Amino acid sequence: MMKGERQQDQNQNNEERPFKYNAGDRTIGMEMSQSASVASAAAEFLTDGERRKSNGNMSRTYFRRPGERPAFLVLRDGLGDRSLLREEPGIYPAGPCLIRSEEWLLEPELAALYSSWMSCGDEGQAERILQRIYYRLRAAAGALLESADGVWAAVALPYTPELAARPARLAALQDAQLEALFAAVAESQRLGGDSRVDLLAPYPASAAEFAAQREFIEGVAEQTLGHAYAAACRIGALLLPDVGRAAAGEIARIADFLVLDGAAGEAALEESAAEGFAKAAAEVLAAVRRVKPAAAVLAAGAPAAYALADLYQIGLSGIFCSAAQRTEALLRAACLTWIARQDNIDAAAGGWQ
After folding, report:
1. pLDDT, tens digit, for every residue of 222-257?
2. Contact status, residue 28 vs residue 338, Cβ threshold 8 Å
3. pTM above 0.85?
4. DSSP letter string, 118-186
5. Do the beta carbons of residue 219 and residue 180 sit within 8 Å?
6. HSE-up (13 A, CA, CB side) for residue 53
7. What CA–CA distance (Å, rounded) separates 181 from 200?
8. 8 A C-beta contact, residue 38 and residue 335
9. Which of 116, 121, 245, 270 has the fewest CB within 10 Å, making it most exposed?
């Protein structure tokens, strides 16, 4: 039985839940009375909850309170506006930053090596180039873990159409990426670091495909960091919006979390792309929740940010979005949360008198 299946069985009576979000002890009413507008109150409320003191083993995990809708999270997608300074010890983000490995491959020195490797026909020379790529990736992973994002990052393994057409090269690069990442984690741990790295298997089309990807990741983790780390490593699936709905449900059974990727093959950034993405997300979420009601399901990419209100309404756990979209998304999510809570207060009071 795979680790994901064992975890699901263990959590049958112990509700598994998405990212924790704790806005502190202040009530929304108090927030509003101290603010000049809904938007500013929302911003204060959300900022207050973005980082929080450690709460034992629950400080960086996927869960929600029983009987309560979890807050909608707006998390960072990409390396763009990374802070180099960490918070004081014991302060953790509400969720991970999404790191796409392809971004590292776009950096000038790595891009040149990657291009040479992909075009190299001599296996011996290709192996030497891949070794150089590994050292560059290890340096990049080390920089990530030393930054604020290293407190909790979700790293998607590299995947491009060009690599997909050459499975042997895809597997070799993903192996190098994992070894570089885990070596950086091992070095961070040796120096007393407190970093957490989750992994995302890119675009599985079936549960069997994801199971193979998960086994591969766990194998590299065990070889590099040992069995204990491999057993604790959280592995999710990065899904295409057009993934088969039944397949998405089956993948959810053995995945620790899911991310529906609106950036995969997106044709445009206009809001017109958001409607179709929101519809696909609703269908995927329904299929997943039929199988695993408490699954953590997030979305990423520009269409996800544009469709934020719809994604909030259908009950998605949150979104990853770029630095350019994040401020607006934070305000919109916080306002939606405030409105929903006011509606709950009104309903509990029997409406306005």
Report:
1. 988 888 787 778 999 999 999 999 999 999 999 999
2. yes
3. no
4. HH---HHHHHHHHHHHHHHHHHHHHHHHHSGGGGSEEEEPP--HHHHT-HHHHHHHHHHHHHHHHHHHH
5. no
6. 2
7. 13
8. yes
9. 121
